[in-house]
């Protein structure tokens, strides 16, 4: 039986450790027949070591989404390995420590600006960097944490995710005529490196134990990865500007 990404070429950002949502997305994408290329930020040798745990060998390209030269050269660097892309995964989030953990009222603009640049604007920057490789359309999928609500401790990542969600809708608006779909997975809490950098993340995650209709496991990034792979596939052909919740259903529960 062939996989749902058979014959597709997918660029995946955001692999850092095996706890990364991007790692599981890459694993599932390969299992579903895709050819995958990764980008890594900063600790390239670590990313390469983690990437060896994927079912098939992959290339890792360096990409800091706030580095204009990295973005400008990305398409050419991808072309050295793959001629075109059918999908791009944005699995990137960062906010400085003083923008997280209960310091919302005192965070300086510089820290907010960094969070917005790396976590929200980067969806547009990455998509445009990959556009020359997506002449026949494709799918862009990113990851959010439901920005409809103010969460404990999440602070300026909240407005950054709200900006990411809006950016995804505007990209969907402007890239529809090229048959490029842009969607997000809104994941429940997962104990990745990004999550552990939020002081008090455990308190936030505890909400899921109490209120999630489906049992939620913060140590398992696979459900979020499955959602991303589904949105990359041909099984959501007319879905764009959408946010699919992979959160155990918590978003639907009022109290
Ligand atoms: N963990 C959660 O609870 C959770 C829930 C919902 C959504 N998300 C989102 O999922 C995505 C992936 O996070 P994760 O939980 O897998 O954590 P992670 O720490 O494994 O991944 C975050 C990635 O962002 C990358 N990154 C940071 N700054 C960058 C930059 N300047 N350029 C390029 N890459 C950069 C890191 O290298 C890392 O690979 C993020 O958008 C995150 O906000 C996470």
Can you describe what's shown?
The protein has 255 residues and is of the alpha/beta class. 38% of the residues lie in helices and 14% in strands. A seven-stranded parallel sheet has the order 3-2-1-4-5-6-7, sandwiched between helices. β5 (138-144), α5 and β6 form a beta-alpha-beta unit. The model has no long low-confidence stretch (mean pLDDT 97). The protein binds nicotinamide-adenine-dinucleotide. Residues 13-17, 19-22, 41, 63-66, 91-94, 118, 143-145, 187, 189-190, 192-195 line the site of nicotinamide-adenine-dinucleotide (NAD).
Structural class computed from helices and strand pairing: alpha/beta
Low-pLDDT parts are none
Provide a count of the helices: 8
Shape: globular
How would a textbook summarize the main sheet?
Answer: 7 strands, parallel
Helix content: 25-40%
Radius of gyration: 17 Å
Q: Which sequence of SSEs, written as H and E, runs from N to C?
A: EHEHEHEHEHEHHHE
How many beta-strand elements?
A: 7
In short, what is this structure?
By secondary structure, the protein is of the alpha/beta class. 38% of the residues lie in helices and 14% in strands. Bound molecules: nicotinamide-adenine-dinucleotide (NAD).
Task: Identify the notable features of this structure and list them briefly.
alpha/beta; binds nicotinamide-adenine-dinucleotide; 7-stranded parallel sheet; 255 residues
